[in-house]
Structures are given as structure tokens and as C-alpha cells.
Design brief:
Blueprint (H helix, E strand, L loop, with lengths): L1 H92 L3 H54 L1
Helix pairs in contact: 1-2
Length: 151
């Protein structure tokens, strides 16, 4: 019986050691998984915060750009109003129908040229604003691509 007890004790000891080793391995794997998950969640939070900051920066650039465009349009409207007053006075001073039509043609021509110039100017301002606003968003996109390539 003594031999059976020794064999049983050894088998029990080996089984306990196996269970203990398996439990330690499982615990280490769980700890490693939790650590990786925590690290990933921290990175995700940081990434999302950086994205939010980029969106806010882009929105700020757009707001400033729209403010400049609005001011430009107000200034243009003022100058057009003043120019129109001068041109209308020229129309009222016309003594013949030919002078009237010449003044009217001049008013129309200069108004159209100014309008086309203004549209081009505002277009350029809008394009510049869009490019400036896209910069922080483009950087975040590049960061996302880089992060995905690391995985």
C-alpha cells in the first residue's frame, strides 16, 4: 500500500503542479490581455481626442475664412454702392440719348468687370480657406493610416 500511496501522492503532486502551472499561465495571459486592452483603449481615447482637436482647428480656420469672405463682400458692396451713385449721376447728366446709352453701357461694363473680379477673389479666398482647413484633418487621416499599418 505504501507504494500505491507514494504513486498516488506523486500523481496528485504532478496534477497539482500542472493545474498550478496552467492557472499561472492563464493568469499571465489574462493579465497580458487586460494590459493590451487598456493600452489600446488609452491609445483610442488619445486618438479620438486628437481627432476632435483637429476638427475644432479646421472649424476655426473655416470660421475665420468665412469672416474674411463676409468682410470682403461687405467692402465690395460698399464700393459698388458708391460707384453706382457716381455712375447714376453721370446718367442724369446726360444731355442726349447717345450720352445716356454710353454712360449706361459704361456702368454695365464696369459693374460686370467688378462682379467677375469679386467672384474670382472670393473664390480664391474660399479655396485657400478649404486648403487651410483640410490640413489638420489630413494629418489625422495620415495618423490613422499609420496606426492601421502598425497593427
Amino acid at each position: 500500500m505504501s507504494a500505491t500511496r507514494k504513486t498516488t501522492a506523486k500523481a496528485t503532486e504532478a496534477a497539482n503542479e500542472s493545474v498550478f502551472t496552467a492557472a499561472n499561465t492563464a493568469q499571465a495571459s489574462i493579465n497580458e490581455g487586460v494590459e493590451r486592452m487598456t493600452k489600446g483603449m488609452t491609445q483610442m481615447g488619445s486618438f479620438a481626442q486628437d481627432n476632435t482637436e483637429a476638427v475644432m482647428q479646421a472649424a476655426s480656420v473655416v470660421a475665420k475664412g468665412m469672416e474674411k469672405v463676409t468682410q470682403e463682400n461687405v467692402d465690395y458692396a460698399k464700393s459698388q454702392f458708391e460707384t453706382a451713385q457716381d455712375k447714376v449721376q453721370a446718367l442724369t447728366k446726360a444731355k442726349t440719348p447717345q450720352e445716356f446709352f454710353e454712360a449706361q453701357s459704361e456702368l454695365f461694363r464696369t459693374s460686370m468687370e467688378a462682379q467677375i473680379s469679386q467672384v474670382n477673389k472670393v473664390s480664391d479666398m474660399m479655396i485657400a480657406t478649404a486648403k487651410d482647413a483640410a490640413q489638420p484633418l489630413s494629418k489625422r487621416y495620415s495618423a490613422m493610416v499609420e496606426l492601421m499599418q502598425q497593427r
